[in-house]
Amino acid sequence: MAVALYSRCSMIAAMLLLGLLLATFHVTGANTGVCYGLLGDNLPPPHEVIDLYKRNNIQRMRIYAPAPEVLQALRGSDIELMVGVANEDLHSIGTDLANAYSWVQTNIRSYGNVKFRYIAVGNEINPPAWEADYLLGAMKNIHQAIEEAGLGNQIKVSTPFSFMVLGESYPPSKGSFRTEFRSFINPIIRFLEEIGAPFLFNMYPYFSYSGNTQYISIEYVLFTSPEVTVQDGQFGYQNIFDAMLDAGYSALEKAGGASLEIVVSETGWPTAGGTATTIENARTYNTNLLQHVKKGTPKRPGKPIETYIFAMFNENNKNPELEKHWGLFYPNKHSVYQIEFSPTN
Predict the structure, then answer these.
(1) Beta-strand pair 80-85/176-177
(2) Which of these is catalytic: 69, 180, 266, 280?
(3) Is this structure's pTM higher than 0.85?
């Protein structure tokens, strides 16, 4: 009887442990989203795209503007969304709070059963672009409109930066923002800290590699290096993704933003049009990325890295040629290569 009771208790404990593991896998598996661009004249209709996300267990999406047909298709889907405010709208929203209220009413509050996660105000804005003068004002106005709509705990407001905002990135501990950008970026960092929003980073190891193939190994970029490639004090780096991300964290620390979390709002690998642009390299990069982002970086170990792969489809209206070939899927919804987004990733 004691043996039977022990066996039953062991079985119950094992089932509870399995349930806990499955729940953990589900959370980490959902940590990676995919960017859904619309710059193609042969893309499937949005409702079919949403079905494709769901069939492939892609639980987060980034779109670059609030396309009504996409928002309509997302209703009730449970896909978490990062939605963009277009660069061309920054002046009107940044200079008139009423325009921010209108934008939020039209594009957020009108879609109450869409799971908005972030509003990305602009994309890759930095001086001397004219939009830089209005970016922080637009962020503040959108945030105020979200707060007054009672959605401040649900939706965070931020803006995606490109890696070029860093003036120094090697080794990662030396990471710092460009001197000429600091008066622009430091107030944004302070605002993100005030509202508890993440720092969004569009981060492409591909471009670091393609411009420096004589110095950077393909293994270091594809997460396949068998050993530490860069030793930076106490931290060892086996892949450039971690090195770039930790350079970003070092820059934030120097700018007074040590408490901020970085969300990788774009990353990916093209399959044609440039150096090392093969289907196999793209498959290797994104497959290994899905596994790697669960683990954190040497500077921030054990904390999953929220990441968005660029992009869902090859988009034939983009230029130059390299920009057409970042998709996980062809416009006919066939996969360019096999990649697994299952919760056990």
Answers:
(1) unpaired
(2) 266
(3) yes
